[in-house]
Amino acid sequence: MNSKKSFYELIRFVIVGGAATLVDLAVTTILVFATTLHENIITSVAFITAFWVSYFGHKNFTFKKNGSALSFFILAVSTLVIRNIIVWGLVLCDIRGLPALITAMVAVTAITYFVAKFKIFKG
């Protein structure tokens, strides 16, 4: 793959990832301020909502390749588990609310890119 094509793919990943992150953050923020749900429930609901933005965005825009929805779902669930472990650990350290949720959200982004690019949408 030439460097110009790789650069534009990376820009598209950032756009789709940004859109999914905005959806994730919006759902997270709404649930934090509108409910009394535990942080792990909030992060799960937000993550699953953003999953659909991410999958269809990467499939149709970023990589423009048919990737396995099942593989992408497994990636999402795996990173959701990692994310919840991070949130759980931060809550145990009395870091709650948005700081815990955003820290966990950022931590799983790099994992998602590399696995999606090199395993799921490698086509």
Automatic annotation (TrEMBL):
GO cellular component annotations of the record:
plasma membrane
Tell me the compartments it is located in: Membrane
Source domain of life = Bacteria
Please report the name of this protein according to its UniProt entry: Flippase GtrA (Transmembrane translocase of bactoprenol-linked glucose)
Q: GtrA/DPMS transmembrane domain spans which residues?
A: 12-121
Q: Name one GO biological process term.
A: polysaccharide biosynthetic process
| InterPro entries to which the protein is assigned, alphabetical | GtrA_CellWall_Glycosyl, GtrA_DPMS_TM
Which ranges does the record mark as transmembrane? 12-34, 40-57, 69-91, 97-116
Q: Name the keywords, alphabetized.
A: Membrane, Transmembrane, Transmembrane helix
Q: What main location does UniProt list?
A: membrane
Tell me the membrane topology, using the record's own terms: Multi-pass membrane protein
- Would you identify the family this protein belongs to, as annotated? Belongs to the GtrA family.
